[in-house]
Design brief:
Elements: H1 2-14, H2 22-33, H3 66-81, H4 89-92, H5 95-106, E1 108-110, E2 154-157, H6 169-176
Antiparallel strand pairs: 1-2
Helix pairs in contact: 1-2, 1-3, 1-5, 2-3
Length: 177
């Protein structure tokens, strides 16, 4: 139910989006849906080619956050299935299963790597005191934003074609007789 509701929410945001913003939008939507344990407030990453994409700053997907994603999926599940999700369904969901289902339904092809779905504190092994070691990464000594999905992780969006399987059993039966 959740993956089908997410499909409808995602398609609403991706419907009339410029091609330059698709990977940015998909990575932000996936971070709001699945990567909320790594970063509870993911900020959208806008395209560097802002001269070509004029609507990226005021697009609806840039205003989306984790709470509004939860609210939209809960409303979509109730609208389509007449089922009310409890408040703890986010923590009970298996992230890798939900990611796979959403990618299959939407046609997303992601880079094959081990994605981090929960924030893990690395212990300082050298000191042996078990405290987390803080290192400065990123620009000017500031730590870069940690998110599960980056726009470079989305490799392709392929069309999903629904079809009925052909019945070929009848031709084999005639040849056997």
């Amino acid at each position: 139910m959740v993956s089908r509701a997410a499909k409808h929410v995602f398609s609403r945001y991706l419907r009339k989006l410029p091609l330059l913003d698709i990977t940015n939008c998909i990575s932000h939507l996936l971070n709001c849906l699945i990567g909320f344990k790594v970063n509870a407030t993911p900020s959208p990453q806008l395209s560097d080619d802002n001269e070509f994409s004029e609507v990226s700053t005021e697009a609806a997907w840039t205003k989306l956050d984790v709470a509004s994603m939860r609210e939209e999926i809960t409303k979509e599940v109730f609208k389509r299935y007449r089922y009310t999700l409890d408040d703890a369904w986010w923590n009970e969901c298996k992230c890798i299963v939900l990611l796979r289902e959403v990618c299959l339904k939407m046609g997303f092809q992601l880079k094959a790597e081990d994605y981090v779905f929960e924030k893990v504190e690395k212990a300082d092994v050298a000191n042996g005191n078990g405290k987390s070691k803080k290192t400065a990464n990123g620009v000017n000594g500031h730590k870069g934003e940690e998110v599960t999905f980056q726009p470079k992780d989305i490799l392709n969006v392929v069309p999903v074609v629904k079809d009925a399987p052909l019945r070929v059993l009848s031709t084999f039966r005639r040849e056997a007789n």
